[in-house]
Amino acid sequence: MISRRDFLKGAAASAVGAATIGVLGACTQDDKTPASSIKWDKETDVLIVGGGGTGVAAMLQVANDGAKVLVLEKAGIAGGTTNLSGGVMQAAGTEYQKSLTSYKDDSTDKHAELWIKSGEGYIDEELVRDLAKGAPEHIKWLSDLGLKWTSVYGHNHVPYIDKSLYADRIHVYEGGGAGGQGVLLVQTMLKAALAKGALIEYNTEATKLLTDATGTVIGVVAKSGDKSMNIKANKGVILAAASIDQNVEMAKELSQQHYWDLTTQMCFAVKTDTGDGIRMAQEIGAAVAGFGGCIDFCFKTGNATTNKNKVFPSFIVNKKGRRFVCEDATYAYHYRAIFQQESQLNGPTYMIFAKSSLSAQGAPWTEESVAADIKAGTVLAADNIEGLAKLISVDEENLAATLATWNADTAAGKDDQFDRVDGLVPLEGPFYAYKNVSGNLGSLGGVKINVDTQVLKPNGEPIPHLFAGGLNAGGWIGPYYPGSGTAIIGTVHQGRKAGANAAKIK
């Protein structure tokens, strides 16, 4: 699993003042130079833009399929934000799920249906079903490369999704599961690709896609230091340069929640994730899809990131002092609600807990740590709920009524308001308030693709010889992130698929 506490210890927070890229809308290529007159500095069969998880998976697949492949990586190392993850992956019906969990007859159809329900009607169902169907084979493929799968767990629920669709599907390999351990996944694929003759050039940034008179992508313009070069791709170009994670300007244009994160919250994606692949594709007429959400979690507590850990007795209130969401729903679901409430009411939201909460299973604070946070000003404390209301500037009667309802309902073992399951225990003071802060692990949304990972124009027509996958592509994850292991299995699936489809072009 992605351990949020370990992640925060091992990965420095990226600055929200990220590099911006000016071109946001689709436009036509303005270079009138005929393709036949381009002076090529380098040449390969398949050119991959980005050496993160998606790019490295594509790189290995192309090499396995016998084509020449070159990866251009903007940073000095491979892996991108995948390195900062735990490397966990969702899949249904694998031998590991059968042997390590009680789910012996799970199906890819159920898995797809859960993802589709979480998409709330805003996703390409064909992409989602294709991903769910392909996921089990990727687990085996990675096992054959040397990863050892040691455990499988599940993600937290979403109140409106039928419980029968859930299962423990999140696969953890030996040496993985915690923040920063996605490096092992990346290095496993990278070493196998390099051994087959694949090439990767670091500190090299692709800046423009080159097309011929028919609109077919034939290469890229790239720069390394002060040097600019034209690189020819005989078979195709694969965009694997992540989403708009650290691009404030593109976020403002395309994703309200991600813009909120970049300007008021915390983003942990690598600084080189500035939407380059999306911008370049738009410049030659590509459509975009899937913008609107991001991978958000509570950076302080890591609440609701795994069904193995209970969400401790606490509730979340808005500026009015009222609950508004199921707090033990999967993390990005309830963080979407936090974003909406803070935007609509123009004020912060708070996690409310009590001294009685500190002894609960999974409590992220102890008496000692909460005392330290009170001293630091991260947590506010009061002997009674009215006093806490004053400290956080919410209506005293509302907050007292919210607490009274919580205590009455949880004493009866239920949550009639939001269908919460975990941590249904009355709260006894003194009381504490923690101001919610989002920890962002990347934006959702990218260029529009089909199941063959071809990049599409707004009319649905593929752009010849241009492919994309992972979070450089959009439309396969809905308006909130449905649970750990979704993004990484997507990078492997779509990276491999793009690599295979590009490699077979004649």
Summary, kept brief:
This protein is of the alpha/beta class and 506 residues long. The protein contains 14 helices and 21 strands.
Q: Would you write up a description of this structure?
A:
The chain has 506 residues and is of the alpha/beta class. The chain has two domains: 42-293 and 442-504, FAD/NAD(P)-binding domain (3-Layer(bba) Sandwich), CATH 3.50.50; 299-437, Flavocytochrome C3, Chain A, domain 1, CATH 3.90.700. 32% of the residues lie in helices and 20% in strands. The protein contains 14 helices and 21 strands. The strands form five sheets. Strands 1, 2, 6, 7, 8, 9, 19 and 20 form an eight-stranded mixed sheet that branches. α5 (125-145) crosses α14 (486-503). The longest helix is centred in the first third of the chain and has 21 residues, at 125-145. It is elongated and about 75 Å long. It starts with a helix and ends with a helix. 57% of the residues are buried. InterPro entries: FAD-dep_OxRdtase_2_FAD-bd, FAD-oxidoreductase_2, FAD/NAD-bd_sf, Succ_DH/fumarate_Rdtase_cat_sf, TAT_signal, TAT_signal_bac_arc. Keywords: FAD, Flavoprotein, Oxidoreductase. It holds the Pfam family FAD_binding_2.
**Whole-number total of structural domains:** 2
Q: Which CATH architecture of the largest domain would you pick?
A: 3-Layer(bba) Sandwich
Which homologous superfamily in CATH is the superfamily of the largest domain? FAD/NAD(P)-binding domain
Class by SSE composition = alpha/beta
| Biggest beta-sheet profile | 8 strands, mixed
Q: Compute the separation of the termini in Å.
A: 41 Å
Please give the CATH class of the largest domain: Alpha Beta
Please state the overall shape, judged from the principal axes of the Cα atoms: elongated
User: How confident overall, as mean pLDDT?
Assistant: 93
What is the CATH topology of the largest domain? FAD/NAD(P)-binding domain
Organism: Youngiibacter fragilis 232.1
Cofactor: FAD
Keywords: FAD, Flavoprotein, Oxidoreductase
Domain FAD-dependent oxidoreductase 2 FAD-binding: 45-487
